């Protein structure tokens, strides 16, 4: 960890923080990047707070879904270019270690057992785009700019962008976007599968919260096991049958399954408790 990041972690608890955390009563947590004047860059301070937030969320038994968004004109502008430039001339081994820690810290969002939703309220660039792609679901402002312009900065892509972008839009389209460094609109991103839907900027967070609320209202164990199955990548029918043959019987033993069936019979909304 560099000296600035260390100072960030030691900041006073009542100091301004670039990440706001909101825990809603239904088990949905909202993380909001709150450094709009700088377009929400991934500074050392924000990275330290993100690390703490992920650690806390992994230990939260009541968490059912996570929404990530930003304030101002950007979702996240990616790594702080000033901090990156400060590493110029440092030993390669040290830079490699620092960047690897940075990547892995931010990608811990993929380790959460609950669904994650990116509400891309504005521009998502470089590592900021990678973070959105690391979420399970993505909704974007139609006018937002999204892209990975690493090569336009003299950089190789980082934070697993080569894999995450190909996963979202396919290898051929990912090559085009990565090799040109081209930025596209949220509307265009929706047409190629980078995001699930493009909306007016003032509707993006509401759409993401509506989806998170739907997820939170479903049976927690069934949702978590479904996410685990999907995380195994594109399965063959045989692999899917093997996983589902293990996971579905587990859910048939739960109180939530009984509640789901009973609610369907009584034509009412089920109340799932996670048991």
TrEMBL record:
Q: Where in the sequence does UniProt note compositional bias of the Basic residues kind?
A: 265-275
**Which keywords are on file for this protein?**
Lyase
Q: Which GO terms describe its biological process?
A: fatty acid beta-oxidation
Entry keyword Plastid: no
Keyword Lyase among record annotations: yes
Q: Which domain of life is it from?
A: Bacteria
The entry lists its GO molecular-function terms as: enoyl-CoA hydratase activity
Q: Which CDD domains match?
A: crotonase-like (cd06558)
Mind telling me which InterPro entries this protein's record contains? Answer: ClpP/crotonase-like_dom_sf, Enoyl-CoA_hyd/isom_CS, Enoyl-CoA_hydra/iso, Enoyl-CoA_hydra_C
Q: Where is the composition biased (Basic and acidic residues)?
A: 255-264
Q: Where is this region: Disordered?
A: 253-275
Q: Which reaction(s) does its UniProt entry say it catalyses?
A: a 4-saturated-(3S)-3-hydroxyacyl-CoA = a (3E)-enoyl-CoA + H2O; a (3S)-3-hydroxyacyl-CoA = a (2E)-enoyl-CoA + H2O
The record's family statement is: Belongs to the enoyl-CoA hydratase/isomerase family.
Q: Per its record, how is this protein called by name? A: Enoyl-CoA hydratase
């Amino acid at each position: 960890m560099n000296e600035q990041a260390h100072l960030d972690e030691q900041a006073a608890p009542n100091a301004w923080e670039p990440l706001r955390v909101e825990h809603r009563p239904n088990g949905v947590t909202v993380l909001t990047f709150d450094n709009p004047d700088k377009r929400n860059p991934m500074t050392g301070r924000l990275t330290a707070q993100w690390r703490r937030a992920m650690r806390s969320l992994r230990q939260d038994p009541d968490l059912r879904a996570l929404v990530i968004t930003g304030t101002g004109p950007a979702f996240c502008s990616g790594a702080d270019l000033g901090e990156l430039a400060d590493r110029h001339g440092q030993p390669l081994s040290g830079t490699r270690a620092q960047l690897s820690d940075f990547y892995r810290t931010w990608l811990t969002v993929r380790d959460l057992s609950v669904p994650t939703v990116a509400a891309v309220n504005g521009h998502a660039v470089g590592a900021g785009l990678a973070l959105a792609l690391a979420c399970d679901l993505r909704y974007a402002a139609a006018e937002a700019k999204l892209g990975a312009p690493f090569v336009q900065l003299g950089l190789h892509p980082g934070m697993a962008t080569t894999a995450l972008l190909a996963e979202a839009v396919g290898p051929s389209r990912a090559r085009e976007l990565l090799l040109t460094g081209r930025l596209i609109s949220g509307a265009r991103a929706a047409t190629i599968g980078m995001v699930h839907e493009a909306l007016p900027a003032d509707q993006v967070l509401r759409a993401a919260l509506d989806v998170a609320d739907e997820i939170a209202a479903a049976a927690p164990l069934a949702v978590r096991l479904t996410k685990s199955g999907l995380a195994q990548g594109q399965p063959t029918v045989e692999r899917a049958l093997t996983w589902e043959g293990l996971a579905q019987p587990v859910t048939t033993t739960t109180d939530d399954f009984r509640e789901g069936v009973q609610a369907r019979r009584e034509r009412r909304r089920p109340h799932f408790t996670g048991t």
